[in-house]
Amino acid sequence: MKNKLLSWKYPCLLLFGIGTSNIGDWIYLIALNVMMLDMTNSPLAVSGLYMIKPLAALCTNIWSGSLIDRMNKRKLMMVLDWTRAGIIACFPFFSSILIIYVLVFIISMASSMFRPASMVYITKLIPREKRKRFNSLRSLIDSGGFLIGTAAAGALFMIGTPAFAIYANAAALVLSGVVTLFMPNLDTKTEVKENKLSVNTIREDWKAVFHFSRANRYIITIYVLFSFLMVMATAIDSLEVSFATKVIHLSESEYGFLLSIAGAGIMIGAVVNTLFAKKLSTNFLIGAGSVGVSLGYLLYACSSSFQTMGTGFFSLSFTLAFASAGFQTFYQNSIPVDMMGRVGSIYGLLESLLIIIMTFLCGMAAHIFSIQGAVIGGSLIMLLSTIVLFLCMLKPTFYKVNLVKKQRI
Q1: Burial of 305 (0-12, 13-18, 19+ CB in 10 A)
Q2: Who's near 88: CB < 8 A, 6+ residues apart?
Q3: Do 371 and 243 form a contact (C-beta atoms < 8 A)?
Q4: 59-88 pLDDT tens trace
Q5: Global pTM?
Q6: Residue 141 and residue 5: Cα distance in Å, rounded?
Q7: Which of 92, 122, 280, 331 could form a disulfide with 163 if both were Cys (CB 3.0 to 4.6 A apart)?
Q8: How buried is residue 311: exposed, middle or buried, by Cβ count under 10 Å (0-12/13-18/19+)?
Q9: CA–CA gap between residue 287 and residue 387 (Å, rounded)
Q10: What is the rounded CA–CA span in Å between residue 172 and residue 168?
């Protein structure tokens, strides 16, 4: 028992750091939206904040994977946490919208680097047999971060100002960096490559990812299909507020309660997943979880009342806990750790591009047809893609046999 507890010392410390950072992220998101709306009184200026994140990823992911795989991941994570904390703390001192957009862009660039870097570090730290349970616990931490972060933001607004909430987020990121400081250094000197980052190096890394993708088509197929689920979820979510207020005619308080239902759904799902992590296969978690998410979106898209929409929100968030934990485990077990940063960054570039395109198309469909029609259409596309994903996860050997036959032909 003592050895078992000691083996979870660093994973628990890492989960604490992730949870702290996640709570701060939600406080930052809400506080920044409120601060921007107070400054401009323009919903368009607020929506512009949401376009910066994928644009920053497009600019960063071209080269960041090459940098991540060549640097000490622990040091990089600390630098990115503290850099974001320093920039966020500067927000209240500026009143120029352009400067705030630039700062948000830099923070988003750092965040797009932090995710693949942390994924590599987690894969090295957590043994293969513990990854599924760790990812289940991480889903639980993320859902708790959503609930605690939104509640903390509301409490901070009551006792202070959005600027005070911004400082709280900066403090959370500083604490997250300090926690990382006490984590073990998992990169040896031989693993950290000394060659400088150049255009030729980036070109060779892209070729390496392309060759890996051709040699491992099944893995990349699962990766792309799951990424498309996230793309469609983001595109549909961009119409969420409009759907809730203009189609279902919910008040602001009812919409806030709806978000709490979603938070409760993913938390309960994460708890159930944690309890049964050893009994549920990774393939089942990804396949069934993804179909459950798309069915939840379709239920909410076809709803005409608060009760039905709430049921859809709970269903999609409940099953999302299973799908995300399963996919993270699949990714960690399937992608070589020495090129995980490059694979994650390059395919993250594709995902960001698709998010921009699909969000624009959903917005245009809502404008030309109707908001509910656009949400239903997007949910049906999501359902079709997740059925294909489910079939691939259900019969991986069948997929591989067919692939071999086609290659021989």
Answers
A1: exposed
A2: 28, 107, 166, 169, 170, 173
A3: yes
A4: 898 898 888 888 899 999 999 999 999 999
A5: 0.83
A6: 19
A7: 92
A8: middle
A9: 8
A10: 6
